[in-house]
Design a protein that fits this description.
The protein is 39% helix and 17% strand. It is α/β, with parallel strands linked by helices. Helix 1 (34-50) packs antiparallel against helix 7 (177-184) and helix 4 (111-124) runs parallel beside helix 5.
Length: 205
């Protein structure tokens, strides 16, 4: 009997969507590497717009946690308000209206809360989840590390922003490649990931 073919986790613009989770003002001074995380998420958003990948944005209880930070560059996106520690209930209608959807690219905070629960809910729906590791963080680096490991154990793909961007564009002959090349010319800012991944970390093996 032939072995089951592994799921490769390829991403294509026509079957992907970008989720931006809860990058709000009140988190600015509490989340580790918040400016770097938002900067990378903003890069993902710019690429999504160039490649016509749909984007969905949520805000967790904005009356208390404030609006989405302006540096994300999310003007023109209508944030969906939520209190649940998952994006999926608030985005249910949007997901149901996209039968071609296969892959969700996930950015935001916090890794052990809304990112983890969103990932599990999406996997439960049969979707492939690509956690943009340099665009996700937590107040605690321990929570961040264990959440990344937990999501990987459950079947999510851990990817960097540049890796996903190059998968989406696919070819240097793509008409938008030169614009995208400008966005990735400088490496993504350091968000403390090297310290999480270095050595033989048992959580990530």
């Amino acid at each position: 009997m032939a072995a089951a073919r592994p799921i490769l986790g390829r991403v294509l613009p026509g079957s992907s969507i970008l989720f931006l989770c809860d990058m709000q003002e009140k988190f600015r001074h509490n989340i580790a590497y918040f400016p770097q995380i938002v900067s990378v998420a903003a890069r993902m958003l710019r690429v999504a717009r160039l490649l016509e990948v749909p984007v969905l944005l949520t805000e967790q209880y904005p009356q208390g946690l404030g609006p989405t930070v302006p540096e994300l560059g999310a003007e023109g996106l209508q944030p969906l308000t939520k209190t649940c520690f998952s994006m999926v209930p608030a985005l249910q209608q949007e997901l149901d209206s996209r039968p071609q959807l296969r892959s969700v690219l996930l950015c935001g905070i916090e890794a052990q809360a809304c990112i983890l629960n969103t990932t599990l809910d999406l996997l439960d729906r049969g979707l492939q989840v690509h956690v943009v590791v340099d665009a996700c963080s937590s107040r605690s680096q321990v929570d961040r590390l264990v959440a990344l490991a937990r999501m990987r154990q459950s079947g999510a793909f851990l990817s960097t922003s540049e890796g996903l961007i190059l998968q989406l564009v696919g070819d240097a002959a793509h008409p938008q490649f030169k614009e995208i090349q400008k966005l990735i010319k400088e490496p993504a800012p350091d968000s403390g990931l090297l310290g999480l991944f270095q050595g033989r970390n048992p959580l990530l093996h």
